[in-house]
Fold this sequence. Notes:
The protein is of the alpha/beta class. The chain is built from nine helices and seven strands. Strand 1 (80-84), helix 5 (90-99) and strand 2 form a beta-alpha-beta unit.
Amino acid sequence: MDEELEAAKEGGWKEFAAIDAAYELGTLGDAGWHEAVTSLVVPAYLAAVTAEGGSGSSRDAQSWEYARSLLADAATPGQTFLDIGCANGLLMESMANWGGVEPYGVEISPELAAIARSRLPQWAERIWVGNALDWEPPHGFDVVRTNVDYVPVPRRRALIERLLSYSERLLIGVFNEERETRSLERRVAAWGFAISGRSERSHPHPRLAYRAFWIDADDAK
């Protein structure tokens, strides 16, 4: 394993790998996995001194926009956009600016959801607390955004199925991936989901790319 490359993809990759290993061994169940991940992530987000840091990015505002705004390729103005794992709500706010969407958010951490509501009082009633695997939405959405690593590895196909049940388009990303491979896209396609579109941008690391892809509910049926 190329540790330097893994660190460029995800700064906390060793800690997340240890949590996944404990789940695979049966030391952690679903609830324990989520508790371990939130215990790792939430304190860092709460301690962040920038809005970007409070949404999981170590980069500045310009770099945030460069890496994340490719998500706007999957949405059109006026559409409803649900951000799974919305943290402090920065991506909700950003997508409203970049793509003219009507943003919504769901966050597993009550503390982060409270910050999002405080930052975005105009959308406070659109921000809910819940686990995406079993959260019941009040209505459907045009676009739902997630990353598959929000749940344990064996539950990732179920996450996609669940989110497609109330979205017209499921957007996966942004994630960092080696340029020469589309391993995540191939894995999702192997589960029986047709990939409807994709977007990417170059990454500061020469071997990586920022990527997102999406699945349209009509194509998934």
